[in-house]
Design goal:
The longest helix has 22 residues. The protein is of the alpha+beta class. It has a four-stranded mixed sheet. Strand 2 and strand 3 form a beta hairpin. It contains eight helices and nine strands. The radius of gyration is 21 Å and the shape is globular. The chain folds into two domains: about 170 residues, no CATH class; about 80 residues, no CATH class. Helix 4 packs parallel to helix 6. The structure holds zinc ion (ZN). Zinc ion (ZN) binds next to loops.
Length: about 260
């Protein structure tokens, strides 16, 4: 465990000056094809926690994908050197990789997998695809360990593999989370600043607070008078300003 925490997870790639060639695909959908050229990124880049969250939650609009790639580099590079484009992806393939990544995240947490494949169509009839299981404790990636700057780094073969290894490393620290609001449309996949955080943002925290209050009043109605109070919820520290304006009503520090 100690080894993983002290090892930097890296890949050869990352941010760069990229030029995008975007084509809309003529299938009547919002599908696109993006190809990236320019200076092929080849520096050793360490994967950050921020990046895990941005990749897992990145929206499918081409502008959002370009923002991600500008900041962190393409998740996979076409291996052949000398090609004009070093990255090419359609929305469909981008989503498939992202859903795979989100499923590993869910598996590491040992929670139910909910996505377009498992909640719609045939997937729902195959609970083995989405039922919660024992938390995943191993992932596979190719790469090599190197000594660099007096420390140990793991250089993954691809950027995507580095993301997956980093995810496992963050889970060792107990900080990997999925927002407890099932309708979360903000950042359902997030990394907690401290152990009790269950909601990604104030909005989702407010939803949790309402749910807890409702549960409390229902139980109170059934049991009659009770001394207990509604459960408090813990949210990630976003929207700090709103927080102040609301007099910090929604943030309480009480544990169950
Ligand atoms: Zn949320």
């Amino acid at each position: 465990m100690k080894l993983v925490q002290e090892t930097k997870i890296c890949h050869l790639g990352g941010a760069g000056r990229f030029e995008y060639v975007v084509t809309s695909l003529p299938d009547g959908s919002d599908n696109w094809l993006v190809r990236v050229r320019g200076e092929r990124p080849s520096q050793v880049t360490e994967v950050t926690e921020e990046e895990l969250v941005e990749y897992a939650n990145c929206r499918g609009e081409i502008e959002a994908v370009k923002r991600y790639i500008n900041k962190f580099g393409p998740p996979l590079l076409i291996e052949q050197e000398g090609e004009e484009f070093f990255y090419a992806e359609t929305l469909g393939r981008w989503r498939a990789s992202q859903i795979h990544f989100q499923e590993i995240w869910d598996r590491i947490l040992g929670i139910e997998i909910r996505n377009a494949y498992t909640t719609k169509g045939l997937g729902k009839y195959f609970p083995e695809l989405w039922k919660p299981r024992e938390p995943l404790k191993a992932v596979q990636a190719e790469g090599e360990f190197q000594v660099s700057g007096g420390g140990l780094i793991f250089q993954a073969k691809t950027h995507y593999m580095a993301l997956v290894i980093k995810m496992l490393a963050v889970s060792v620290a107990g900080k990997l989370r999925k927002c407890s609001n099932p309708g979360c449309s903000n950042t359902p996949y997030f990394i907690a600043e401290h152990g009790k955080v269950q909601y990604c943002c104030q909005e989702c925290g407010a939803w949790g607070q309402r749910k807890a209050k409702l549960k409390y009043w229902r139980e109170k109605k059934q049991v009659g008078r009770t001394e207990s109070k509604p459960e408090s919820v813990q949210t990630q520290g976003h929207s700090a300003d709103k927080n102040k304006r609301r007099g910090r009503k929604n943030v309480t520090e009480k544990a169950r």
